[in-house]
Write a structure and sequence with these properties.
This protein is an alpha+beta fold and 217 residues long. The protein has a single domain, classed as Maf protein. It is 30% helix and 25% strand. It contains six helices and eight strands; from the N terminus they run ββαβαββαββαβαα. It has helices at 28-35, 58-74, 103-113, 150-160, 195-204, 209-216; strands spanning 4-6, 20-23, 42-44, 81-92, 95-97, 117-128, 133-145, 179-183. Strands 1, 2, 3, 4, 5, 6, 7 and 8 form an eight-stranded mixed beta sheet that branches. A hairpin with a 2-residue loop joins β4 (81-92) and β5 (95-97). The radius of gyration is 18 Å and the shape is elongated. The two termini are 32 Å apart.
């Protein structure tokens, strides 16, 4: 059985004319972002190996994993379901930086990134099996990290413990102080779910967020 978590701030079910919206992620950051659209949705954990393939570029890894997550979650449901999958991979000098997992891993990542430009590739994939709709978008954010001291890094990590974040920095909170500049056409991309691209995909899948919200009122 899939692991599902209804959104406590939203109605339990969408109107019958709308698909069942599922976020294929248990990330609290993506959950918060999607909730900004005010649509009823639930979450389901994807069963996907996130390891990179030999020679796979960071942006291609993000694209592939977003699609794989959406497809895997869609297979766990029946009926008219609309699944959103997303993945983020940081890139430094052509090398992928994943989630550090530990304090030591995060320290090593931030030491490597200080004073450098880092790319954050965020892919979002939307799948609606009943109509055959499948599409993916990838957005890249360029981030300039400050020339951080070891003390800066240690102080930040002890305060925020961003061990579940690619690149070891939570830009939506204290991690913003680690940065000198952000170049992006969608500020939500860096947090983990590009909402403008997501909204575009939902419209193309036949689930325009504005029309859906109007139907809920």
């Amino acid at each position: 059985m899939p692991h599902r978590q209804p959104d406590p701030q939203q109605p339990a079910h969408a109107p019958l004319t709308w698909p069942r919206l599922v976020l294929g992620s248990t990330s609290p950051y993506r959950r918060e972002l999607l909730s900004r659209l005010g649509l009823p949705f639930e979450t389901c954990a994807p069963r996907v190996d996130e390891s990179a393939l030999p020679g796979e570029r960071p942006r291609d890894l993000a694209w592939r994993l977003a699609q794989a997550k959406a497809q895997d979650v869609a297979e766990q449901y029946q009926g008219d379901v609309l699944v959103i999958g997303s993945d983020q991979v940081a890139e430094l000098n052509g090398q992928a930086l994943g989630k550090p997992g530990t304090h030591e891993g995060a320290t090593a990542q931030l030491r490597a990134m200080r004073g450098h430009r880092v790319l954050f590739h965020t892919a979002v994939s939307v799948v609606r099996p009943q109509t055959g709709y499948v599409d993916t978008r990838l957005k890249t954010v360029t981030v300039m990290f400050r020339s951080l001291s070891d003390n800066d890094i240690e102080t930040y990590l002890r305060a925020e413990q961003p061990y579940d974040c690619a690149g070891s920095a939570k830009a939506e909170s204290l991690g913003i102080v680690l940065l000198d500049a952000i170049e992006s056409d969608d500020p939500t991309t860096l947090i983990g779910l590009p909402l403008m691209a997501t909204s575009q995909l939902l419209r193309q899948a036949g689930a325009d967020p504005l029309s859906w919200r109007a139907a809920l009122n």
